[in-house]
Amino acid sequence: AMRSATAAGALDDLAVIILTGGRSSRMGRPKAWPDVAGRPLLARVVERVLPWAHDIVLVAAPGQELPALDEALAGRSHPPSVTIVRDDHPGEGPLPALALGLAATSASWALALGCDAPLVRSSRVARLAEERGADVDAVIPLWEDRPQPLVALYRCTLAPALVALVAGGERRLHVIATLPRVRLVAAEALRALDPAGDSFRCVNTPDEYAAAVASWTAAHATSQRA
């Protein structure tokens, strides 16, 4: 019980920024919409973070239509506010989109996610949250020897530094891992909480989508039985 209380306390001040404006070229259709057990993929991601998100910021492309989230938000008596901001650098990748999202919340820290991460685990996010400190501006997990900047925590005051990177021509999100005051968390610290790395599974292709739906359905069935 003490562990879960710690997890809840570690998360109650986090905003969640969900990047929805990617081109989805390999998927062949906008990623926010594919059905996962009767609801759009984006809605399932929102459901995942609802129990503890301080507020939710969706960063969308100009003119992008997003699925309604009313049903997903109805699962909580005091749902977090949802803000939609439009990416003013469409097509230039997730770095400017993340900067925009960080600037759009009043929270001090935010979790960044893609709109295709329906299996992200709150226990793993709470473990990352424990790594925050006065001398840390970002907490980025490593998985399969690579930084995972789209399941990572960012101090929201990092937004101007990201804007400066974009202004200098940078487009790669993983460059954040090379900034000062960034704490990288080894996979070993997370494996017990998420043995298969579900939190890092993205849905880039129809095959990955099918696998994610199967995993989500299996996990949901397990939690229902429990």
How far from one another are the termini?
17 Å
Low-confidence sequence ranges: 1-6, 24-29
Helix proportion of residues, in percent?
25-40%
Q: Please compute the radius of gyration using only Cα atoms.
A: 16 Å
Outline the biggest β-sheet: 8 strands, mixed
Give me the strand/helix succession.
HEEEHEHEHEHEEEHEHH
Number of helices: 8
Q: What is the overall pLDDT average?
A: 78
The total beta strand count reads: 10
Proportion of beta-strand residues: 15-25%
What structural class is derived from the secondary structure elements? alpha/beta
User: What is the overall shape?
Assistant: globular
Task: Note the main attributes of this structure.
globular; single chain; disordered N terminus; alpha/beta; about 230 residues
Explained architecture:
The protein is of the alpha/beta class and about 230 residues long. Helices cover about 35% and strands about 20% of the residues. It has helices at about 1-10, 40-50, 70-75, 95-105, 120-130, 160-165, 190, 205-225; strands at about 15-20, 35, 40, 55-60, 80-85, 110-115, 140-145, 145, 150-155, 180-185. The strands form 2 sheets. Strands 1, 4, 5, 6, 7, 8, 9 and 10 form an 8-stranded mixed β-sheet that branches. Strands 2-3 form a two-stranded antiparallel ribbon. Strand 2 and strand 3 (about 40) form a beta hairpin. Helix 1 crosses helix 5. The longest helix has 20 residues, at about 205-225. The chain is globular. The two termini are about 15 Å apart. Residues about 1-5 and about 25-30 have low confidence and may be disordered.
